[in-house]
Amino acid sequence: MPDRFAMGIHVNMLALAVLALIALNIRRRPDREDYVQKTYWAMVMANTVMILIDIAVDTLNGRDGEALRSLHIGVETAEYALIPLVGMIWTTYVEQRIDRYGKISKMKLALIAAPFAINFAIVIMNLGRGFMFSIDEMNVYSRGEFFWINVVISYIYLVYSFVRIVKNRDSIRRSDYRSLLIFPLLPFLGGILQSLFYGVTLIWTSTAFSLLIVFVNVQNDQLNRDHLTGLYNRRQLDGYLTRHISSAERERLLGGVMIDVDGFKDINDKYGHVEGDKALEYIGEILIRSFRREDFVARYAGDEFMVLSKVEDYGDLERIVGRLKESMDSFNKSNYLPYRISVSVGYDILDKDIYKTSEEFVKHVDKLMYEQKRRIT
Question: What stretches pass through the bilayer (predicted)?
Answer without folding.
Answer: 6-27, 39-57, 77-95, 107-127, 147-166, 178-196
